Amino acid sequence: MNPKNSVGWILLLLFQCGPLTNAEKALELANSHLLPTGGHRKLINVHAEGYPRDCSEIFKQSEENSKDGLYVIQPAKEPIAVYCNMQDGGWTVIQHITANSTVDFDRTWQDYKYGFGSIDDNYWLGNEYMHQLTSSPTPYTLRIKLVDLNAEIKWGEYEPFHIESESSQYRIRLGLYRGSAIDALCQDTEAYLHDNQKFTTKDRDNDNYFQNCAKLEYNGIAGGGWWYDACAGANLNRKNVIYWQQDCNKTHMCKYAWMMVRPVDYHRDCSKVCPSQKDEL
Ligand SMILES: *[C@@H]1O[C@H](CO)[C@@H](O)[C@H](O)[C@H]1NC(C)=O
Ligand SMILES: *[C@@H]1O[C@H](CO)[C@@H](O)[C@H](O)[C@H]1NC(C)=O
Ligand SMILES: [Ca+2]
Predict the structure, then answer these.
(1) What is the CATH number of domain 19-181+251-264?
(2) Which of 131, 158, 211, 270 is the least crowded, having the fewest Cβ atoms under 10 Å away?
(3) Which ligand lies nearest to the CA atom of residue 248 in the structure?
(4) What are the percentages of helix, strand and coil residues in the chain, rounded to 5?
(5) pLDDT tens by residue, 182-228
């Protein structure tokens, strides 16, 4: 190790091992199991008071100057930690997968309910928190972002997007579509229509197939939890093949996928607020 590096390491250790602030100590996250190593220190907005309900609020409060990273939000009673994609405009990331990463997406109902993985890496935020986030009086938009092996980016948005409660098996409700990707969640009306489907996991079969879609394997890897029909025109939770019809499949491989949410009125709010802020200057 060269001397410059060891100084860096010592500084890093000092920084990481200093005492926790009172706010850090007091912070109780409902999803602390999704924190990476280094935990609370990696959260950008730890303070004493209540937290914003999602990343778009943080982005707006910072006058669109906040950076991507780990933040605390409070969509309902309990604060949770999430990854905020600020570069794309204040989006709360609810799913991220890297093809062939070590994070296992072949999980139970309970795991999909409260989330798994690590918020600075691949993760599923949890159906319960997706339900909380999308149950505000203002409707939410779902944004899908796909990156193929040539680093080409495609995206799609459903507006509105709502995940119902557990008593409705976290059913998905999707509105109008726009984007450069195919409308893979709503396009097929025969057996691959994901809109209005309940969530299925390997231990809870709510799909429309004679077997459990979440258990069907491709090259030894099961499909993971999803809003299956019989079975899928899209599935972002099978870790060896990110599937989105012609945009991402086993012949046209994708490397990354994200699912993220933001209130539908984000821009409308801004068009009201932003010009008046300028007037005041
Ligand atoms: C996979 O994607 C390719 C390229 O877009 C397309 O030609 C092919 O039909 C797709 N395969 C499936 C099974 O959807
Ligand atoms: C994932 O791993 C499989 C098996 O090793 C490989 O065929 C495939 O190309 C990999 N996918 C990506 C996107 O790298
Ligand atoms: Ca079934």
Answers:
(1) 3.90.215.10
(2) 211
(3) 1
(4) 25, 25, 50
(5) 999 998 767 899 999 999 999 999 999 999 999 999 999 999 999 99
Pairwise CA distance, residues 18 & 147, whole Å:
39
Three-class SS of residue 183? coil
Q: How many residues does the chain have?
A: 281
How far from chain centre, in Å, is Cα 199? Answer: 16
Ligand 2 mutation pick, 239, 253, 256, max ligand atoms within 8 A of CB: 253
Residue 90 DSSP SS3: coil
pLDDT tens column, 246-277: 999 999 999 999 999 999 998 755 444 444 33
As a whole number of angstroms, the distance between CA 79 and CA 77 comes to 7
Q: Which two tokens stand for residue 58?
A: 């943080």
What pTM was estimated for this model as a whole?
Answer: 0.89
Two tokens, residue 179: 């984007």
Rounded CA-CA distance 8/111 in Å is 38
**Does residue 100's CB lie within 6 angstroms of at least one atom of ligand 2?**
yes
